[in-house]
TrEMBL record:
The keyword DNA repair does not apply. PANTHER family: INOSINE TRIPHOSPHATE PYROPHOSPHATASE, INOSINE TRIPHOSPHATE PYROPHOSPHATASE/HAM1 PROTEIN. Pyrophosphatase that catalyzes the hydrolysis of nucleoside triphosphates to their monophosphate derivatives, with a high preference for the non-canonical purine nucleotides XTP (xanthosine triphosphate), dITP (deoxyinosine triphosphate) and ITP. Seems to function as a house-cleaning enzyme that removes non-canonical purine nucleotides from the nucleotide pool, thus preventing their incorporation into DNA/RNA and avoiding chromosomal lesions. Its EC number is 3.6.1.66. Homodimer. One of its GO terms (molecular function) is ITP diphosphatase activity. This is dITP/XTP pyrophosphatase. The gene is rdgB.
Length: 200
């Protein structure tokens, strides 16, 4: 089965393709099929992922999968949430991972409650009209460090400390990170849903 990935992120494609390999599913990035970016006007991950998947399915006529992910900081009432990718721009910095980390550490400078979670929501649709989307959520709770630690990963990995490992995501080998990350959890849950509903 060919499935359009409602993302142009090459890293995300490689990660998900590997996870979905057991299902004999071929993921194709939407840009390769001439699909532009979808609007993401919503305040929840699930609504934005659904909008992206529906858009890709409508344009291509193929089943589609999309994810929306972000960082939810307890002390900020769950924000930046869906605005995670643009977090730094709220504070006058250019968009980018290192600026996001910098802005976050500055905003949390005087805050004792360091609890946060990386959250990923995956949505899959058989068609743009599918009334029963498959929805899988992964959540990796941890604490925000006071400075970046580790060289691996991307995004907030260097400041996301996982008490269970005593390390940040950026200190973990990729296979350990993927086994425990928010996206890894969501992808495994989605795989189980697809096996149950689409490939019984």
């Amino acid at each position: 089965m060919k499935l359009v990935l409602a993302s142009n992120n090459a890293g995300k494609l490689a990660e998900l393709q590997q996870l979905f390999a057991p299902l004999d599913v071929t993921l194709v990035r939407q840009s390769e099929l001439g699909v532009g970016e979808a609007e993401e006007p919503f305040r929840t991950f699930v609504e934005n992922a659904l909008a992206k998947a529906r858009h890709a399915a409508a344009v291509t006529g193929l089943p589609a999968i999309a994810d929306d992910a972000g960082l939810c900081v307890e002390a900020f009432g769950g924000l930046p949430g869906v605005d995670t990718a643009y977090y730094a721009t709220q504070f006058g910095y250019e968009k980018g991972d290192s600026n996001n980390v910098r802005a976050l550490l500055e905003q949390m400078a005087g805050i004792e409650d360091r609890r946060a979670a990386l959250v990923s929501t995956l949505v899959a649709l058989r068609s743009a009209e599918d009334p029963e989307p498959l929805i899988a959520v992964g959540r990796a709770p941890g604490q925000i460090t006071r400075e970046p630690v580790g060289e691996n990963g991307f995004g907030f990995d260097p400041v996301m400390f996982l008490p269970a490992f005593g390390k940040t995501f950026a200190q973990l080998p990729p296979e350990v990170k993927n086994a425990n990350s928010h996206r890894g959890q969501a992808a495994r849950a989605m795989l189980a849903l697809m096996r149950e509903r689409w490939f019984p």
